[in-house]
Structures are given as C-alpha cells and as structure tokens.
Specification:
Two copies of one chain form a homodimer. Chain A is mainly α. Helices cover about 75% and strands about 0% of the residues of chain A. Chain A has two domains: about 60 residues, Orthogonal Bundle (Arc Repressor Mutant, subunit A), CATH 1.10.10; about 140 residues, Tetracycline Repressor, domain 2 (Orthogonal Bundle). In chain A, α1 packs across α2 and α9 packs antiparallel against α10. The N and C termini of chain A lie far apart (about 85 Å). At the A-B interface, α8, α9 and α10 of A face α8, α9 and α10 of B.
Chain lengths: ~210, ~210
C-alpha cells in the first residue's frame, strides 16, 4: 500500500513536471508566432488544450509563468550559442557557425529573444537576467577569440575584450534591423555581418592592402 | 477697420503657431526626461502651463500631437546628423564629430530617438517615418564616405554602401546598450565605437600589420 502511494506520488510528480514543461513550451511558441504581447493566459491555455484555471494549478500567476518562460528562452539561447562557438574549426569556420546561429536559428526567434531587453526595460529583475545573459555571451565570444589567438589565427595585438564588445554591438544592431524590417534579406545581412566581424577581427579577406595604398 | 482685422488675424495666427511650438517642445522635453510612456496630455499641459482642453484647441487628439512630436524628433535628429557629417575635415575628424553627435548630443536623447522604432513597432505609419529617417541617415553616411574616398582617404576597393550599413548597425547596437544599461561609461563606448568604425573603414591605426603577421 505504501509502495503504491510512493509510486503514484512519483507518477503524479512526473506528470506535473511534464505538464509544466508543455505549458512553458506552448508559451514560448505563442511568443515566437505572435510576439510577447500576445502571450496571454488565454492563448497559452488554448495552445496546450487546457483551461485557464488548470494553468493556475501549475503557475501561481501570469508573472510566475512569464518568469519561467524568460529563463527558458535565455537558457535555450545560451545553449545554442555555446554549441555554435565550441564546434571544431578555425576562426573563419566559427564565424560561419555563429552566422548560422544568428541568421537561421535566432532570426526565427528574433521577436522573442531580441525583444527581451526592450520588453522588460522597466522590470529590474528581468533586466538583471538579460544583462547576465549578455555578459555570459560576451564571455563566450572572448574565450572563443582567445583560443583562436592562441592558435595563431588572430593578430597578437588584437584586443579580445574590445573586439568581443564590438561584435556583440554589431550583432545587436543587425538583430534590431531584423525585428524592425521584415522585408530584410537575411542572406545579404548574413554576408554583411560576416564582413563586419572579419574587419573587427582584422582578418578581412579584402584585396591585398599593400597594392592599393 | 479691415486692416486692423487682418493684422489681428495675423497676430492671432502667429500666437497660435508660437503656442503649438511651445507644446511640441514641452512634449519632447517630457519624453526626454521620463520616456515616451510618460508623455501624457496631463504631463504636457503641466509643462506648458495650460489646461488639457487648451491643448485640444491646438491638436485634434493625442495621436495628432504624438505624430508631430515624432516628426520633430526625427527632423532634429537628421539636422544634427547633417551638421556633424558636413563639417570640414578629413575622415578621422568626421568620425570624431559623428562620435560627439552620438555620445554627447544623442546620448541625452537616447530614450526618445533610439526607442522610436521600438515604441512604434506596431504602428505602420510611424514605422514608415522611422524607416525613411534610417534610409536618409544611411544615404548621408554613404555620401560622406564617397567624398572621403574621392579625397583619397579611403581605400579604392572599400564598399561604401556595405560599410555605411555596418557603421549604422554598430551604432544602433551601441545605442541599444546605452538605453539598456544606464551604468555604461560613455567615454569608453565612444572610444570603442571609433575603433569599430575605423576597422569597418579599413583605416584602423592599430600597430603596423606587417611586423606581426
């Protein structure tokens, strides 16, 4: 009898965790499809196929749910970022992977991840989370550049921190353009972003400088 | 008698134009001090020292006023931009002027001009205005780079359009950081921005490449 209760409690807990997970994923999908503003309890409940009161049995209130959604979006973003930057290859290969991440994976999520800082401009807690994720991202870029430098792929005098900051700002500016203008050609933006990053890293493959100077 | 009426009508019209102007300036100042969200009719009326019904005698409704405020902010921004980029000097001098514009003049207005695209993300008319002002800004940068190139200050193979786009995205990314993080050191960001622009334009004054490669 006792064993059966323990088993049932575990099954119940697993069921609840599975349900929480489905709710979070549904909320993210609503935000991806229609933006943060559209992520209402009604829209989420409809997506999961449950009632609004049922949502409340998993999340205290809308803020608690939104909080977990933001955590998850940031986590997914950082995981993808780590995966892209840690794959084998030289600096040119890494830049290509990074470009794929931005212009293929993240462009699909541009209205949620890129709008996070703006959406929560006046919410200090969310603000802090986004700032932490930006710092984590900057550190990842810096580490990646440091490794490339130690492999002799970047100039010895290249300032890794400054370059990482410049790459991060250039990327944010291009993402903003992607949010703002849905008519944008992502292939052209991708090529331009790569050109910009290569120039920031002083490894641009422009025609030999010597013969034009 | 007729002349007196004409004179009075003109005086009245000038008075009304002066009042409209004071209202627009007051609205901009409210937005600068407290952000777009705070630009309520109450706050504007208080700033000008008139009643809310008096505001309605100059502007049909809040949208009409907001519309004129956005036009004015865009116009001020472009005028400052034209002034900074058209002053005499070589490309390094122009970059310094541009940096002053961004990090001194515009940094003060960062919560209004830079937040325009975001604030009006879902308003097609405002959206169009901001897009037009971005195109105008890009053209100004391109023209400026073309002139520098014709003076022999930039490499012959430098792609002016691409470089202008990269500079514009880098700037937008840094402005976003300024909005997001009030703790930012503008002097450091300014120096970094100049470094980024010089690298994009392939005129960075980093140590001679030849001796480290």
């Amino acid at each position: 009898m006792i064993i059966r209760e323990i088993v049932m409690a575990r099954v119940n807990q697993e069921y609840r965790e599975g349900a929480r997970e489905r709710i979070i994923i549904a909320a993210i999908n609503v935000a991806i499809e229609k933006g943060w503003e559209a992520m209402t309890l009604e829209a989420i409940a409809q997506k999961v196929g449950v009632s609004i009161p049922a949502l409340y049995s998993y999340f205290r209130n809308r803020d608690a749910l939104e909080n977990e959604v933001v955590n998850r979006v940031i986590q997914i973003h950082l995981d993808e970022f780590i995966a892209a930057l840690s794959r084998d290859g030289d600096i040119h290969r890494i830049i290509q992977n990074y470009a794929d991440l931005i212009f293929i994976h993240q462009a699909r999520h541009v209205n949620i991840y890129s709008l996070l800082p703006i959406r929560f401009l006046n919410d200090p807690m969310m603000h802090g989370k986004v700032a932490d994720s930006m710092t984590a991202e900057l550190d990842l870029i810096s580490n990646c550049l440091t490794r490339a430098k130690s492999r002799g792929e970047l100039k010895k005098y290249l300032d890794v921190e400054e370059s990482a900051q410049l790459i991060s700002s250039l990327t944010a500016g291009i993402m903003l353009k992607l949010i703002f203008d849905s008519q944008i050609n992502e292939r052209i933006e991708r090529k331009r972003w790569i050109m910009g990053v290569e120039r920031i890293l002083l490894i641009s493959r422009d025609p030999d400088r010597a013969d034009v100077q």
